Amino acid sequence: MAELPVRPAAIRSARPAAAVGRARAGAERGLWHRPALLNLISDLLTLAAAVALGWALVLWFLSRPLFPLRELVVLTNPAQVTEEQLDYAARLAVRGNFFTVDLEAVKTTFEKLPWVRKAEVRRRWPDAIELRLEEHDAVAYWTVSESGDARLVNRQGEVFVAASNADMPQFDGPQGSSGWLLARYAEFSSQLQPLGVRLVGLALSAREAWQLQLDNGMTIVLGREQEKSPLVGRLQRFVAVWPRVQSEIDIEIKVADLRYPGGFALTPTDASVLQQPVAPAGRKGKQ
Question: How far apart are CA 86 and CA 93, in angstroms?
Fold first, then answer.
């Protein structure tokens, strides 16, 4: 009896059927077969489009000439800044309407004016900008030693560029030393008060040597700070003895050199007096 061969067709056909089932189940779990997720994505896209459209409409509305700026209100009374300068800065900086004007740009433009130290700007409904100015209060002229550039110094010791013909002292020194000179000017001026003179010039060299110019034409050479003989002490000694020395010599002095620890040297305005026996101009005064 012949044996019939066993055909594994049924076994082989079972594997493709299982794979097809798994693929169909995976497809049913995909994005397009999840209505809740599709609805959420659709809602988010709609919301984003609505926000973008709304923002575009707001920008378009604000850019319309519906809120023009008609007035610049200056809340302070400028002492140095002219009306022409304010008009020029306003025409240069004020762009847009009440909502779109760049206040920071307006502030920066006004602070570039020569006498303006700080500027504050804000909107005033419905069609104005308020401006508050802080001007420089100049207290001295300033010359930078390295370049010779002329500047002004304000009460805070800051250097700024402007023109002035006021009666102020002259400062000369390295760049960045204006605040130091201003502080020392007040100190030296206080020490010189007993002599009835005014300090009109103060110079600081690159080696930190000090020189004072008085309104009577005399120059006081202080030199550098010394641990054993500080500047303040040397100037105090000079102020204490100078009235008596001046009455004794009765000579107009051009330079008083205080760089000596125990006294000072004098240089007369007229060098010819050195040849006169009654005028000891080369004498040193000591306390």
Answer: 11
Rounded distance between C-alpha atoms, residue 97 and residue 118, angstroms: 24
Query: Torsions phi, psi of 59, nearest 5?
Result: -65, -40
Q: At what angle do helices 178-192 and 231-249 cross, to 10 degrees?
A: 40
Q: What is the pTM of this model?
A: 0.70
- What sign does the CA torsion over 72, 73, 76, 80 have? positive
Closest residue by Cα to residue 255 from 282, 280, 279: 282
* Strand 128-135 relative to strand 138-144, pairing: unpaired
Where residue 250 falls (left for φ over 0; alpha for ψ -120 to 50; beta otherwise) is: left
pLDDT for the residue 145: 76
Tell me the pLDDT tens digit for each residue of 11-38. 454 455 555 555 555 555 666 777 777 7
CA-based nearest residue to 150, from 159, 176, 179: 159
End-to-end CA distance of the chain: 151
Q: % helix / strand / coil in the chain, to the nearest 5?
A: 40, 25, 35
CA 264 to chain centroid, in Å, comes to 42
Between 64 and 220, residue with greater pLDDT: 220
Summarize pLDDT for 192-239 with one digit per residue, the tens.
999 999 999 999 999 999 999 999 999 999 999 988 889 999 999 999
The Cα–Cα gap between 285 and 132 comes to: 55
Residues 6 or more apart whose Cβ sits within 8 Å of residue 131: 72, 73, 74, 75, 76, 86, 110, 119, 120, 121
The CA-based angle 139-192-154, given to 5 degrees, is 10
Structure confidence at residue 280 as a pLDDT band (50, 70, 90): very low
Backbone angles phi, psi at 37, to 5 degrees: -65, -40
Q: What is the spatial distance between Cα 73 and Cα 130, in angstroms, rounded to a whole number?
A: 5
